[in-house]
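Predict structure. Chain length: 167.
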Amino acid sequence: MELVGRMLDGSIPYDLKGVLQPSAGPLVGQDEKIERLQEVPIFEGCSRRQLRALARITGVFDAPAESVLMRAGEPGREFFFILDGSARVEVSPRKRARLGPGEFFGEMSLLDGQPRSATVVAETPLRLLVINGRHFWPLLKEVPELAQSIMATLSRRLRQAEKSLNA
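Prediction complete.
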């Protein structure tokens, strides 16, 4: 019982290997992966060469509804892009947000090396593009447009958080 309690409260790290399954969907080859990457708004400024590099380091995974993709306070090891479905971001019991296709999460911990700031739960079954943390910084160097998009999104999220605090 103590083991289950520690897993639920986050004191035992959560392992994504039991949650994410390699996609059984149509994204098999690099060409198909590149086509899907082109549909993600944050990649629209990428060249074909950059998309090919991105496709090489991106895994396509499915996660069932209600699965926890990351927990607040745990180390960050992945960067996620939602292809299909929606996820709930839980910053606090009162502060929640919803993410859908084309949106991403998990970047903050990879940028600053700090633990995750939120818990993210799949609201519906999800299809995700996942980039392992060890590929994150080389990717930002290879695709500077991606770094700019991430900074713009972080700035927008910060402004929204400040606005909700002042309301």
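Summary: DSSP finds six helices and nine strands in the chain.
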